[in-house]
Queue: 3 jobs
Job 1
Amino acid sequence: MWVVIAGLALASCAAPNAEPTAAEDASLPTAARGELIFQSDREGPTRLFVLDVATSTQRRVGNAGEWADEEPDWSHDGRRIAFSSTRGQNGSFDIYVMDADGSNIVRLTDHAAPEQDPAWAHDDKSLFFTAERDGRGEIYRVWLQDKRVERITNSINRAIMPAVSRDGRYLAYAAQTIMSFQLHLLDLTTGTSRQITSGEGACRPSFAPDSQEIAFVRMGGPSHLEAVRESGPRVVRKDARAWSYYPDYSPDGRYLAFSVSPEHHQGEDWDLALMDLQGSGKIERLTSGRGNDRVPDWRPVSAR
């Protein structure tokens, strides 16, 4: 049972586009394996790429165009990728899925309001996502079989950035409180929701494989990464010289992939990084160079 961490929120949680100068990150001598899908604007429009962690080889996935493809999320069987895209005729973000090789692209939503943040349900039969269909962000669910859409949250303020526990019981999301965003946890079996963070703004939840811990972004100057479980919150990654964002656990729970940048908004330069959660806490840069690399998501082990 998850504990409620009550308190007054003090700062906002805005998604960065990434102030302080970046640290020179130390090399991380690990044997990490697997694939990460992520979004990058290195070619101009935001597109999706897959990185082999062990070899550092990268490939673009999905057909290129003047549209934006963003926020990729692997299905639990590793065979499909959910993402948001502006490739539709209305030019607004909608939810799509495609096969792992970029083929068989299917549009699941078609609405004038932006629809983003896709997150697979545990059985891969539906997706949770954020939409502004009623004038503010709320969480919705779409079924792949018939494209039926159901509204999940109905809050006074915004509810965005859904993440689903691996056991399928919980939905974590960022909900706007009086002064900022805080993480809330919805029990999908009972329909009850409660706040699980407090203090400075919190957003971008990501469940650990055992469903017992949630990594998230703690806003401030600069943003850093924390995690929360029944015993309370802990700091995972904090560097006064760099901004950290978009955490995602590896399938075995040992590593945390995320994005890091020396600046926020103006002068941002996001790269992918990797932390060994069982090691010294130092990180390894996985990408560098032109473009902003963000929103990493690990491919499940069963797919390799």
Job 2
Amino acid sequence: MSLLSSERNFARRIDLTSLQLFVAVCELGSIGKAAEREFIAASAISKRLSDLEAALGTPLLYRHTRGVDLTPAGQSLLHHARSVLFSLEKMQAELSEYADGVRGHVRVHASISAIVQFLPEDLGAFIRQHAEIKIDLEEHLSTEVVRAVQEGAADLGVCNTANGVGELQTRPYRTDQLVLIVPKGHDLCAQGAINFESALDYDQVGLHSTSSIYLALRQAAAAVGRTIKLRIHVTGLDAMCRMIDNGLGVGVMPQRAFALMHGVGELQAIALLDAWATRRIELVARDFSSLPVTARLLVDHLAQQPLTA
């Protein structure tokens, strides 16, 4: 039997209703409680679960007087079942909107730098021209954006690509400039511009340890045989500004993002002279030419924006 034929037979043996009931039993820890919630006889649920185990060829549940526990196979199935059911719910939601006049969806994953600095205005202009298109935008780290595009979870990625994109295709979108943020009156304020090495003597407020900015800082420090004196990690640029304003260290963020913070604290931006401080934010896709029409419209719109704000 071919692999494709085997996969088709497997798919035919899996019943979506049984998956839904399996998830309900797992969430409630009891066939009886699941039967009450789903308005179905407990014996019917038990039969469906037995059929599911037979189809998969492995026990999914440990049954005991207090309820049920998951076997290792059951834990794996629960993860996949939730993913399948979530995808079905999302598909239903998207398809229902076509009946309401929405003619297309574009799934976009983008880095925090792209979202804070550029995408609100650019997407706003696009939607005003194409009101029938819905954009699902999610914020992720740049490495996660690339992975989402690779795995097909996103049609389009918008992120810094310094750490590579594998076999994905890219198109230029924007450039941004990283700066060092310090409290006003800080020792470094007297210098108009510095190399990042000068900031290594001070405690740092850093973004997530796998963010593209923090990875760049670590590489810069390692290049001069130093380490970052990291005092605290934060997940957002506004939180970074507040931490710096309260004396917890200095931090690096995009210049335009800092300008858009509208005066969070008494802070000052100092230009960084390092070459890596000028970054490219790019559009990422598996194949731009094979994107849905709606996604290609968005790509064309974003690619027409000026590289520098």
Job 3
Amino acid sequence: MADEKITNSIHRAELKGRDLIEVDLASSPPRLKVIGCADLLALVRAIQTQHGVQPGQWPLPKGTSHSELLVKELILRVQGKWKFPYEHLELCHCRRVETEVVDQAIIAGAHRPEEVSRQTSASTACGTCRPDVEKIIQFRLGSS
């Protein structure tokens, strides 16, 4: 659930404090900003080399690394196909865990509900939010 569109022309996906990929489509060619780890930089470089500078025309990455999840999010945002499966700011009301905290944990590698719970404390009290945690995991990993 990284930041929504900033403007109609700027799209971004982010693992807060770690990796950022942003594109400004108003520039010609589109201006791409990538800040982060070597894996993200290498992935973007490889995709650009093979498919050009238009993120909307890039193929969706198939993997589940944080880099692939961020690039996938950016592509879907540019294509207007990004529809995050949970709309509320707070996902776990018992533990007061924000949706963004859960989503960031998933991007960073918590790909099972138990891992998300361990890292965020979401779904460790009444468990009502567990289906929402599972839905976000499925959405991010492309298995929904």
